[in-house]
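step: validate -> pass
step: tokenize input -> pass
step: predict -> running
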Amino acid sequence: MPTSTSAVTSVNVKVHAQVKPMPELRYVVVHKPGPNWKAGVLALKQPGLQAHVEHFRKLLQEGKLLMGGPFMDVASGGMMLAEAGVSEAEITEFASEDPAVKSGLLAFEVRPWLSALRK
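step: predict -> pass
step: emit ->
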């Protein structure tokens, strides 16, 4: 009687685990008009605002600022988003040294932000 042999074939199965980025805690500097803000003057025309931009440009050049800019509504103000890894103490100290804050043009607060949804 003929014997039958069965061949066992090994199949390599690659499982592609979807890698999801971990949420990152970052700090956001939220600016609002300070006591020396000139009512009725556009944000970009406020005296001293250019010094504020140049101050934060330093942080951008150091690789510690992801992005920033003004809010485009009548309340004005704006925000600066620090890169992941920049501490709350570091960003608070930097924001407090802003010439526009020192002059009273802007006030600020630092808020923790979790980037839970992103590409």
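step: describe -> The CA atoms of residues 23 and 116 lie 5 Å apart.
step: cleanup -> pass
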